[in-house]
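This week, work through this protein record:
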Amino acid sequence: MKKIIAVLIALLLSVSAFTQNIIKGKVIDVTTKEPIEYVVVTVAPGKCVLTNNLGNFELMIPADSNTITVSSIGYVPQKIIIADLTKHVVIELKTGRIDLSEVLITSHSNNISFHTTGNLDLNLRPVNSAQDLLKLVPGLFTAQHMGGGKAEQIFIRGFDADHGTDINISVNGLPVNMVSHAHGQGYADMHFIIPETITKYDFGKGPYYTGYGDFTTAGYVSYSTADVLEKSLVKIEGGQFNDARIVAAINLLSNKAKLNGQSAYIAGDANYFDGPFDQAEYFKRYNLFGKYNMNLSDNNKLSVSLSTFGTDWRASGEIPERAAATGTTGYGEAGNKLVLNAPPIINRFGYIDSLQGGYTSRTNAIIKLTSSLTNNFIAENELYYSNYNFHLNSDATFFAEDSINGDAILQRESRNLFGYNGKLTNRRCINEVTYTSIAAIGARFDRTDNSELANTVNKNTVLQYDQLGNISEDNFNAYLDETIEKGKWLLNAGARLDYFYFKYADKLTAQTASQSSAIVSPKINVQYTVSSKLQLYLKTGKGFHSNDARVVVADNGYKTLPAAYGADLGFIVKPFPRLLINTAFWYLYLEQEFVYSGDDGTVEPSGKTRRIGVDVSARYQLNDWLFADLNVNLADPRYSDLPKGQNYIAVAPTFTSTGGLDFKFKDGINGAVSYRYLHDRSGNGDYSLTADGYFVSDLTLNYTKRKYEVGITVENLFNTKWNEYEVEATTRLKNETAAVDQMSFVPGTPFFAKLKLAVFF
């Protein structure tokens, strides 16, 4: 009898399994009609799926159930009763109050925690510049040391990543990093972005992601602009130090066009800033951006975007510590020669060479076709193009090399960059196992004319060329990526192939040479969701950063693509409904650490390095209107093949922390008080010099209504004396008989307040 009952139960379970229904649908924003990615669609506790980048989902539900719950951070959750399970359902979500209790720990997507943190911070924190966008990444610090027009110096996970050498940055799939740049490898100038157009960003730390290749050692950051503006706006900002900015972003098509799958908008901004320095920066920048989207059919969406930007500025540059302490005399306006009987003018905000600064421009075009194919395939095809120009005058050592004419240099280049990204994604469920397969190919072509490094006098009079030539660099890549989800387990494995071709036509020697190299980068990531409150993960992978083409050719391909090997062991825990904590213990080993010195045209292969660290990020919602965040990042960066005590990595961060309180009241009052802390670290290899740390606080206060917003922002709220940037430099001032090895610095901004008024329509 027992056997008969067991057989009947088994048959019933079998019938039940086959009588389950599969519901297919799409989640969109009710205002913009745009798809929403990473929405959690739940049918029962522990059984859910996430929407893809087109907002689509597919979920198996029991035959006796027709109710699903849909939730996403920043949107009002919905419980939906599906009347007809055979029809494709479209669900519209309204933006609402941010509630951390809506954030779910799920067994899906091995990067969802980073997306959740990023989306939360982007919704809470005001972003007014490209520098603000970068600082949204927990543990990432930036520094500006040559006026506002130069790309920021980036510090993350024990790296002084220069201007982008060890972090991959992209916008809408367009690479920001410039290979074999006149000023440094991986130079990533983000200033062509209008912050108000950015609606989401993703980041990942470490070399664990097949979709990101060159420079992905410390990690990647990927930004996306809005397809449709939630509201049109005009905003005016103004503050101390002659700061002024105006920005406008306007939807061009009607709501009717939006319903038909068409949208278009244009955005622009203009900036002016003198800065706190004794020598006004005369900083000027303009940006224009436009984007058009249309549905070619029910299954094909076309997106086209165009942008252009330009900027020029003067810079006070870096000052040796002794110059600011004792006072010295500046030069420059009289042709790199001392002005007789000039009084000492150097203080923390003074200058030595007044002829520093530059101008740069970039124009971009992107066209992307996204297609939904049969059998749950999604095809993405993207073409991009950039025209880029760069010109920089700088002087970091003064008279250390040339005691007569000085050491001022000029760096410039003109570049055309174009490429292709293609990706095919398939998601399918077989016997309650979900498989997500990705196959992708890509190509990038850089053509740089007259990449130049020259010693100058009177700013642009060339005394001697150190480098002058044309650079061609090609990168072909392909990768395969497979994610398997079963129950509480998620396994992700992939491999990436990158092939590089380098060519340099040296105009000083009239010689042309080339080299090629390839690298394979495997990745394996494992995730186990213990419960709705705890998830464990292990990420492992190999990444790389390419070397400068001029060095590769000169050294016959030596250390062209040095590899990076890393691992993260971490957990995500949600002990309370409104508390989310992400902790990772990590290790990273580099086959070759490069120190790029664009100022003298050299790349120093410094040897093997290893970094060990801990990252902790916590987000806590105290009540309906008050949010707290805390990020603590510890790192121990060292050269592996140098003696102890001589193996410090100069100015690499070892202890950083950011945090703050954000508030959003129902009556429209909102804002934040935040801090950033950077601990003292070694200024050179044996720690005989120190790069000073700092603790700086900022304040933002806004009053936001449906039609307008007024606000005030205060940087360095307590007027802290701090150095934004420090570096070891061998410098000689005009009145000195010998060069001195010492830290040079750029002072951080003092108390700086600015007001804003925005109108929405």
User: Anything to note?
Assistant: The two ends are 74 Å apart (CA to CA).
